[in-house]
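User: Okay, second chain of the day. Same drill as before: sequence in, structure tokens out.
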Amino acid sequence: MTGERIEIVRPDDWHLHLRDGAMLEAIVGFSASVFGRAIVMPNLVPPVRTPAEAEAYLARIRAALPDGHPFEPLMTAYMTDDADPDDIGAGFENGIFRAVKLYPAGATTNSAFGVTRMEAIRPVLAKMERIGMPLLVHGEVVDPAVDVFDREAVYIERVLDPMRRDFPGLRVVLEHVTTVEAVDYVRAADGGLGATITPHHLMIDRNAIFRGGIRPHMYCLPVAKRERHRLALRAAAASGDSRFFLGTDSAPHPRRDKETDCGCAGIFNAPNALQCVAQVFDEEGAFDRLEGFVSRAGAEFYGMEPNSDRIVLEKGVGSETPGEAVTVGDDTVRVFEPDTPVSWRIVSGLR
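Assistant: Same drill. Structure tokens below.
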């Protein structure tokens, strides 16, 4: 880094929602222009459950990219109660699937097909443990008796920790962590456990949802927590601990589906995710660790080499600035707007 400029290996996004159809075509370029690779979430309707469905979805993603674009989507399988261990395993060994995503049924957007009983998926978990296939976990219980702000901590206690004791060789990513309890659990793990952290959970706490009134575009799942949890996430991201890495969880919804009496959960941050993370690392005085968090730690967890090209950011130069919204059909998708200024911009390396 020299002065107000930083050059890093091109980053990857280890948790991304690209959707499908017109939404996919409208938003995929924002991620593809910055990130070399992305773990693509399978929660379409219907979900991506089989290798054939993953190959078809991958073809649609590639068709939405400019010709010859080098962005690499990494496909995942949607875990269901009746998932076939051999089918899942074959998809991984043939290079179609990179991981399996576990949604507790009813936990978040398009999770109705998700897991209702952990006992039902034990054969799949055993197969994944044998072949080294990662399991990506949306770590929240859906018990209505559990407060929404406690669902992550309770999931770790009730589900994740018992599962990891039963399958000690299983490689697990606890997705979009939001709490002190999750950070502490990952730090105490003896191996095989990683965690993604989103730009928005690094920048907002739960007050952002209610500041000046209900703000539906700050609502996501897992929901943002108290300030002490946000500070723990920032400390973990900036620590240099390679078990923590970037997963944007960029999750677009049409504005009409957000601004309604039962609005969808999700924050669309693909246009400014890297800039937001750079702002956080600037504030934390941890620029020497930014590349590790966004470009190296996730690749290491997945057994991949870092990207070969680089990207440059500068502070306060006023280059490209993401717009307030992206048009999709007859509606728009709002871009994440943190309440604190973001002064970093990408000045070279955009594709």
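The chain has eleven helices and 13 strands.

User: Thanks, on to the next one.
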